[in-house]
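G.,

No rush on this.
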Amino acid sequence: MTARKIVVALGGNAILANDASAAAQQRALRETARYLVKFIQQGDSLIISHGNGPQVGNILLQQAAGSTPDNPEMPLDTAVAMTQGSIGYWLQNAMAAELTALGLEVDVATVVTQVVVDENDPAFETPTKPIGPFYNHEEITTIQSANPQFHFVEDAGRGYRRVVPSPRPIDVVEAGAVNHLVNAGVIPIAAGGGGIPVVRHGHELVGCEAVIDKDFASEKLAERVGADQLIILTAVDHVYVNFNTPDQQQLNAISVDELQQYIAEGQFAAGSMLPKVEAAIEFVTHRPEGQAVITSLSNLGKFIENGSGTIVSTVNAESSV
């Protein structure tokens, strides 16, 4: 088999479940690493990206709780950078341990990654990305008075959550460095948490208060490094239509045209599967020779063995269900 350059985008369930302690997240990533090293064993080149939703929310809470005039809390872009460092550290440590156990001498390195967004993106006018915990009305009144720039929304009767803009990524600043690393045989961990959101001001990059969708950022990275495959990991083995109904059907090999028809029918939830499907479409549209895959971490072994998962390409599939 010809070696491929593969970007794997880890979902939050690969890092954090119920226990937010460092030890628990490290254990989860050690289990994740056991799946990821399978790509190295079969001779592929690997680039890893990951989410950071729960982690960045927790950091912001810790920052706010300990903020003083002499030691103020850090802005959101810096909090994203902090999670890139902490999760990258845990993951490169876990990967190194698994690689060593298999007798594979491969270096793993985390790249603190900036992702460029357009400061005129309409998303800045309409914050939609929830971060952090739920609050009751009294709590947000207090928080809002101390932080008038914050935006909150009521979430399905469960309370209020802070929301921030989620602009689309337009470039990955360190994509060249990531490509140099992977071409040199190193496993880079990059674009963590969707990347640190920055806007271009002349020759400068300026951080902004936003969170970039991890799947769109991973797609942009895969596109920029010329990846052969983008694998987006989520909680289910396949994408489904008529999800959670008696008519539920899993999608196997499927074309962009078919997926776009399902999007038009409203088959995919905006807050969960839709961005993954849209990122997969975007990748194979920009790299027609490439392939996008949506599946679960636990299904990676079956995917490697027999192609199990939802596989998206630009060509018409013979059978999509």
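When you get to it, here's the other one too:
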Amino acid sequence: MDTITNGQARRDDPSPQGGPAPQLDLDAVFRESNIGAVLDKLERELIGLEPVKSRIRDIAALLLVDKLRHSLGLSAGAPSLHMSFTGNPGTGKTTVALRMAEILHRLGYVRKGHLIAVTRDDLVGQYIGHTAPKTREVLKRAMGGVLFIDEAYYLYRPENERDYGQEAIEILLQVMENQREDLVVIFAGYKDRMDTFFRSNPGMSSRVAHHIDFPDYTPAELHSIAGLMLEQMQYQLDSEADTTLLEYIERRIKQPHFANARSVRNALDRARLRQASRLFERRGGLLSKEDLVTIKAADIRASRVFAAEKSAGQAENQ
């Protein structure tokens, strides 16, 4: 016989001892939580990053099973949910944090499911007595959801004895331990710097259970990401521009200050600017919808990425 207990689909079958042995319908609970929709959204939003998406699915599975165990009075203690996301800029850390907040909310691990994203400047004051109220105000806003601290290693500056970052860290540690059932903290930043940060703050490291590394995108993945971005902006590339964009990405990756998907978005914004300028110079004529939505190879090839390579080639021939 199927029954519903505490919102869980449950089947009462005889146990070997002769009494009823409750069996929970995992598929039903999965559907009711609707976390499948969040995982599907994450799959659509992020090209590549298979290790990251696999780890998020594993965490979601752990939380779902923990919820089922709890409904039967089985408990291994509240799971530690604080996390560390490491990787270069533009690799999807904030997007994954947003989806993680949704998953936690739908499974009942946070009350609201919102994300508050901050940096050192939002937490650390400039003078004595300023840091504690700033940090507590941020924590107050984040309660019931997820606090995402980007470039978290800047909180710790051992070279400056008068720095107030340590005060913010101590407040965070206290709240992460005492109110972990109402707040999840995600620390983010470059991997090498985050490793140093955790080594310097063992109390912080011991409270962070999940360390997820975000790899850089390949040129082909960035090219696909650009296609999604253009679709969302209702633009398209002609065939030559499509080839030129991949060529641009392959060159841009090798240059300094490359920020993965963020750099690709900036490149598309500049291409849109050049397209608009090109169309503006044609004023007096009629423009079709295709003119307005199409980015051409020249709009991309005008980038300094190509200009720098051309200049270098000319210098070698002189």
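The radius of gyration is 25 Å. Confidence is low (pLDDT under 50) at residues 1-7, 312-318.

Enjoy the weekend,
O.
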